[in-house]
């Protein structure tokens, strides 16, 4: 399904288990935090968690803007 959507518009797969994303054919992959809290960390202060989430979203937006020719994991 990821590949069909990707034919029409770029997609970023934000996930906690990168090998699964690679197996299903996701092209732009952004690793997240942990399975129970993919876009957050309840052990952090609200300010730290907001910064963490913002960083992940900014990384995903950068991935959307990047031309790729093969599956790419965006770690920075």
Describe the structure.
There is one protein chain. This protein is of the alpha/beta class. It has one domain. It is built from 3 helices and 3 strands. It has helices at 2-8, 18-24, 46-65; strands at 12-15, 28-31, 72-73. The chain has a 3-stranded parallel β-sheet with strand order 1-2-3, sandwiched between helices. Strand 1 (12-15), helix 2 and strand 2 (28-31) form a beta-alpha-beta unit. The chain is globular. It starts with a helix and ends with a strand. The model has no long low-confidence stretch (mean pLDDT 92).
Short description:
The protein has 76 residues and is an alpha/beta fold. The protein contains three helices and three strands. Helices cover 45% and strands 13% of the residues.
Top keywords for this entry?
76 residues; alpha/beta; 3-stranded parallel β-sheet
For the sheet with most strands, the description reads: 3 strands, parallel
Query: C-alpha Rg, in Å?
Result: 13 Å
State the distance separating the first and last CA atoms.
26 Å
Mean pLDDT: 92
The number of domains is: 1
Report the β-strand fraction as a percent range.
5-15%
Oligomer category:
single chain
Any idea what the shape is? globular
How many beta strands in the DSSP annotation?
3
With strands numbered from the N-terminus, the spatial order across the biggest sheet is 1-2-3
Structural class by SSE content: alpha/beta
Q: Assign a percent range to the helix content.
A: 40-55%
Spans of at least 5 consecutive residues with low confidence: none
What is the succession of H and E elements? HEHEHE
Number of helices: 3
């Amino acid at each position: 399904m990821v590949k069909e959507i990707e034919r029409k518009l770029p997609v970023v797969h934000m996930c906690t288990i990168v090998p699964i994303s690679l197996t299903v054919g996701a092209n732009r992959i952004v690793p997240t935090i942990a399975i129970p809290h993919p876009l957050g960390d309840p052990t952090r202060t609200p300010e730290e968690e907001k910064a963490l989430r913002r960083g992940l979203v900014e990384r995903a937006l950068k991935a959307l803007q990047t031309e790729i020719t093969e599956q790419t994991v965006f770690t920075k």
